[in-house]
Fold:
Amino acid sequence: MGHYAIALGARRWLRPLPMAWLLFASIEPDLHDVLGSLVPSLGIGPDTHTLPGACAAAVAIAVVTALVFRRIGLALGAGLLVLSHVAADYLTSRLPLWRHGPMVGLHLYATPWADFLLEAGTIAIGLALYASSPDLRRPARRGVAAIAVLMLAFQAVWNFGLGSG
Structure:
């Protein structure tokens, strides 16, 4: 949920980009990971969450954004969203810096309450930024609380499961 929250918060500065594009950029490494799993011959699976892999994906997303939307600032923002994914994952996981490189990260997934607190904080900040976007219509602002509850519920299920047994 944190990746989506970062995309929602980024909308404040990247308003001309469609929300779907922001959400896509924020989870691009995971989508790349799925593609690598589905088509192993591409050989991209091991690199999706490494610094070189994330940088390559960020450049690709930035180039496509620049070509489609014709604004360098938007392209840089979309590329930074891709990089934010891997930066956030280094907090929640332990990942290699490069293929066969050293494993780094806080691995907060191993401590579900700590991960939940980090994700909840990210959700709160991202949604606060989203809600303060000057062009957001009043009905959308009223829905932010519902989005927050839904995102926190999904995060709680991820961290703590549906039941204790």
About this structure: The mean pLDDT is 92. Residues 65 and 71 are 8 Å apart (CA to CA).
